[in-house]
Amino acid sequence: MSLSEIKTKLYKKEANVELPRHEWSEFDPVAVADSLFEKTEMPEDVWAEKNSELAEGNKKTIKIGMMIIGGIILSVALVVGFYKIRQSFFAEERLTVSVEGPTEIKSGNLATYEIKYKNDNRADLKNATLKIYYPEDFKPEENADFKIEGSMVGAFNLGDIKGYSEGRSVFNGRAYSPKGNLIKIKAELSYTPSTVSGMFVAGNQLTVNIISAPITLEIMAPQNISSQDEINYLITYKNEGTESFENIRIKVDYPERFTFSSSSPRSSESDNIWYIGNLSGGQSGKIIIAGKLEGNRDEIKTAKAMVGANNNGAFVSYNEESVQTKIVSSPLAISQTVNGLNNLNANAGDSLQFEINYKNEGDIGLRDVIVTERLDSPVLDYTTLEMNGGAYDTGSKIITWKAPDYKELKNLAPGQSGTIKFSIKVKNIIPIESANDKNFVISSLAKIDSPDVPTPISMNKIISGNKMDIKLNSKLVLDVKGYYEDSSISNSGPLPPKVSEETTYTMHFILSNISNNIEGAKVETTLPTSVAMTGKIFPEGSPLEYNERMNSIVWIVGNLEAGTGILSSKKEIAFQVRIKPSPDQAGNEAPLMNESVFSARDTFTGESISARMGGKTTNLLEDSNTGMKYKVTN
């Protein structure tokens, strides 16, 4: 029976339910409720029928509810059971990875690490790959099973790992790192379980401490110097181990306001890198660096030396040391200029006019003052040295001035100053005998001293100094020659040349570069209007550009090494020109080419340099075949 039918029978009119009537002012809710229950009476057979119908409905509802609850319980049981069954086949935590090996190693020594993995699952692991991550200063040894995938990662392809099995992979390598550095070896095992979709990763890592470096390194410098004084750094290195190292280089980080002058041996790159190459067990060496250091009083200057090798284009340090120098002041001050400048580049054949200025900046007079100037360079012509007083020592290359030369040096009063002048010339022919004869520097170090200058306790005596480094520009040599009879390009036409008839000649540019590498080199010239290029060039395909409208020629040379034309062959090109003389040239030699200019940038000094050669005419003295046949005829 439906609820609506039950409702109709319970509340049908035959029940004669009447609500008591009361005045609203006397309304009593309790009394109304009593009256309702007293007067609402229903026969027992009606109530029994209603209760029976309700009981049947409740049974159906309960049965349906029980079925639903049972279904839910069954579903939960199935899910839990499935999870339990799957868990019995695979769980992530039942795959473990460990990295085992030494936690302390010496830099450069071979280290062996074992990566162990254990699968405690029933399920097999598919497509397993073991990746090893390591720092850039760690170099793995060659291994057929280990595939390098990048500068700091490689992998073992393990394939499938069976259930309830374990394995290991061996990873060897060498760390090239300074003492005290920490490096990390990290392993990651990626796989796909046979019973579960998706990829999983398990991993572990090991931290390793570098306890020593196989290549020892030391850098030494003065404890104290005055500002603008010369400073020398001494670097010593040694391979203390038994194994050889390849591609070793020394790198130095200079302090601020340091000016590099020279080094022995010469630097290989940028004044601060030296290529050592292979360094075998027990092998040692040293580098001496000279320069000028400026700074404020009591300022600490730090220089750092590093020994290492390049790895994928980046310098990797195996060991490094540093040294500190303090800038202190002296009551004596000294400075110098050359040709009125305190910074300049010189050329072969230049005359250098030196001027040294000194002063007592202290509060007391200083007696027996001595001024010295050390001039040391193979490109100076010492026979041209001109001085006003003083003495030059050919062995030490030092000029010395004392009181007999300049009276004020006997007792230099507070605030008193003086000037010393001398001159010397640069050689016109620069001596080039080997590939090392390049990048010449003329070093001049002026110093002033007095026995009255105090020496602080536990410090070097500070003698005031001033250093200048004059770089020598490379010397360019341009030679221009012309031939009628030429082995490179054959010529034709009347000889001597005739008015209104064409005669061809072969012109040659010949280049030499003496002492420094140069870049952007080119030779430029123009041709007279009566002359033109024919297009024949030797060697063929050479970068010679001709502008017919401007009648200009440009030979793009590019870079030239120092010593070209001395230690190696001269750079040369040949090209053909044709001339058709005009009537007004009859009886005279005719111009073939105007002035030529050889220009480039000196990579050592950074200066633009050039050489010039005058024009050429049909009077070619270098060609003996032309003889007197150079004047234009009718």
Protein described:
- The radius of gyration is 49 Å and the shape is flat.
- It contains three helices and 42 strands.
- Helix content is 10%, strand content 49%.
- It is mostly beta strands and 634 residues long.
- The strands form ten sheets. A six-stranded mixed beta sheet has the order 2-10-9-4-7-6, with no helix packed on it.
- It has five domains: 3-42, no CATH class; 92-212, Immunoglobulin-like (Sandwich); 224-328, Sandwich (Immunoglobulin-like); 332-472, Immunoglobulin-like; 476-617, Immunoglobulin-like, CATH 2.60.40.
- The relative contact order is 0.08.
Quick overview:
This protein is 10% helix and 49% strand.
Number of E strands: 42
Shape: flat
- The CATH class label of the largest domain is Mainly Beta
Sheet with most strands: 6 strands, mixed
Any idea how many domains? 5
Q: What is the arithmetic mean of pLDDT?
A: 87
CATH superfamily membership of the largest domain: Mu homology domain, subdomain B
Structural category is: mainly beta
Which descriptors apply to this entry?
3 helices, 5 domains, Immunoglobulin-like, six-stranded mixed β-sheet, single chain, mainly beta, 634 residues, 49% strand
Secondary structure: elements and pairs:
Blueprint: H1 3-10, H2 29-39, H3 44-89, E1 95-100, E2 104-106, E3 110-119, E4 125-133, E5 138-140, E6 146-150, E7 153-161, E8 165-175, E9 182-193, E10 200-212, E11 215-220, E12 224-226, E13 229-239, E14 245-253, E15 258-264, E16 273-279, E17 284-293, E18 300-311, E19 314-328, E20 332-338, E21 345-346, E22 351-360, E23 366-367, E24 370-376, E25 380-387, E26 391-393, E27 398-401, E28 411-412, E29 417-426, E30 441-449, E31 464-472, E32 476-483, E33 503-513, E34 518-526, E35 531-538, E36 544-547, E37 552-560, E38 571-579, E39 591-593, E40 596-602, E41 608-613, E42 616-617
Parallel strand pairs: 2-10, 12-19, 21-31
Antiparallel strand pairs: 1-3, 3-8, 4-7, 4-9, 5-8, 6-7, 9-10, 11-13, 13-17, 14-16, 14-18, 15-17, 18-19, 20-22, 22-29, 23-28, 24-27, 24-30, 25-29, 26-27, 30-31, 32-33, 33-38, 34-37, 34-40, 35-38, 36-37, 39-42, 40-41
